[in-house]
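2024-03-11 09:14:02 INFO receiving multi-entity request
2024-03-11 09:14:02 INFO entity count = two
2024-03-11 09:14:03 INFO echoing inputs for audit
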Amino acid sequence: MNLQRVADKLGIKVEKLGDLTETVVKRSSWPQPRLLRFDKTASGVEAGTAVFETGDIVFGYPKIRRALMLRPALKRHFTDRVAVEEKMNGYNIRVASIDGEVVALTRGGFICPYSTEVAERLLPERIFEDRPDAVLCGEMVGPENPYVPKDIYPTDSLDFYLFDLSRKNCRGTLGVHETHEFADEYGIKAVPLLGEFQVDRAYEEIVDIIKKLGKRGREGVVMKDPENTLSPIKYTSSESNCTDLESAFQYYNDYALDFFVSRAVREGFQSAEWNESEDERRKRALRLGESILLPLVSTVERKMEGEQIVQKVQIRVKKLQTAREFEYHLRRSGIRAIFDQPEPDDDGYLIRITKLVMSTNDKTQALIEGDTW
Amino acid sequence: MNLQRVADKLGIKVEKLGDLTETVVKRSSWPQPRLLRFDKTASGVEAGTAVFETGDIVFGYPKIRRALMLRPALKRHFTDRVAVEEKMNGYNIRVASIDGEVVALTRGGFICPYSTEVAERLLPERIFEDRPDAVLCGEMVGPENPYVPKDIYPTDSLDFYLFDLSRKNCRGTLGVHETHEFADEYGIKAVPLLGEFQVDRAYEEIVDIIKKLGKRGREGVVMKDPENTLSPIKYTSSESNCTDLESAFQYYNDYALDFFVSRAVREGFQSAEWNESEDERRKRALRLGESILLPLVSTVERKMEGEQIVQKVQIRVKKLQTAREFEYHLRRSGIRAIFDQPEPDDDGYLIRITKLVMSTNDKTQALIEGDTW
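2024-03-11 09:21:47 INFO inference complete, emitting structure
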């Protein structure tokens, strides 16, 4: 790899790139092709940026900031019109073709073997024949999502929804319209485009959308500048905030503390901005309280009955090799998981995975045995 | 100060004491008498331990650990009988006589001028004439508590409740019985002793006590070994957990994240251990949810109406000098506060204090102006 050429493409000095190597910039030599990845944002290069040994660079997808108070955030961030897309609840993937092979990169810039197999299956080959430089940014969602399994989308397994397009060796994205045209052209799924509104009347429309999405258990919206010159912002439904809390409190000792508090704070801002009645507020408080209390009770009760506190997920693969590689991928991501024997199914395999949540498991065990905190 | 003598009394090597100086052991030269204080627990010396230049040492009061699952904690921590005292909700003070002067030490080992004046007023002089070595460990509670003002105790101002006794230059405490006998002898208030039970039937009794205390807005209990050979443990009511959350979410950006999560987790364990009905659980969830949502909404709404987010408290002093000194004491404790003009009242002064919660104030202001998070 020619470091000078890489530094030029990244737009940083070669000495700076050298300094970052092994601290922020990490080598990943598996699976092929080998790459350097930015573990954090540094020198203006987004976290998750991957530099392949072929010289190709896939830039990290920028973090989307969140509105807590929607009306002033819209007014402050957008000028004329705002496009509203559904924010889907899964995990972020960037798919590109490197040296003729499709690879799916995680947010952190690792190649994920499972997502790569799914992307190869779902994306027509001609995409990268026509557009060898395309980077497809999308959300992997569905019940066979091993991180955030969700039954709320029209798939039995795992599906890919395009939410943005980019190009190798280029920062920035191509914007809402090109993204949806691209999806149409190649017959692939894209996140629903729910409307485009004048900024001054967008608030009412979006609140309406959020309430409807919430009722269906959906996460929320991403608001984008149709001209693609301003950065997008996101906003979520109460139901999604509460569902997040529900999962997190089930594994209360394995989550970062700010995960809990941030979601509670979102509920407070939404309730205040929506100027809710006493009754609506009581309903929201009950929903919030239950999303905290019930999973905690369930975890304690399960432990009292001698159950292990674990998280069960599943994946579906065409090749057994993919499952073996995904097992290694989870391990290197710091996730402890036990893979069951693959069960042949259609033309592939179903693999049930037990993710260990050791900290919650051990803490709960100690506490029900009378340990103090 | 003879460091060798101090080290001997602390039971650590003089070189170790030297090493700790200026890192863990800090000098405090105001107000008189001057002292060294242990900022953290180190070499087996409790945090808050104060070494006066007279040579007297007041050891820190040991942290009391908390039961999350009461029945097994009782079984595991006590052997024969358990004494149950009310845990009062205020702030911890240790009162001693140093060189003939009464001083009230905070948990951290600072002399608090306000608490010192209150202690001088409430504690009969003959205590330290009879027992010059006594260290009175107690809780300062009431509506004129400038940290945790509470209207639930029978005082209009600030009252001192003894919860343990110790002696200068001695580790350890004298136990439940000596403490209450001492309070009786000198006619001072002590935390209520609610009963002494056989360990194997204590659980039902304590749950009953906790429910009754909760209904009155009281915090909970401290369980002690009547023989004073085992360390005490504490357990709190749901109402107290929720009241804590209520205050904390009002100032959501000025509290440590674990404050929120720990209280939610306590609710989960209590509900599971009490084997609550669906209806009881719904009530608890609503109480929990409201204690999070409503203070957040109130903070946002107040900010939207242009109010500053501050915390108003008040103190009552006999001497104006005490108020001036307390102002300095708050400042050195890292609390930003504005003191109003003293209002003469009875034979003293009422002083209203506005405590600034800058982080919550600024964050909320930014968010209602459309800042993203």
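2024-03-11 09:21:48 INFO post-check: Chain A touches chain B through 54 residues (CB under 8 Å).
2024-03-11 09:21:48 INFO post-check: The longest strand of chain A covers residues 159-167.
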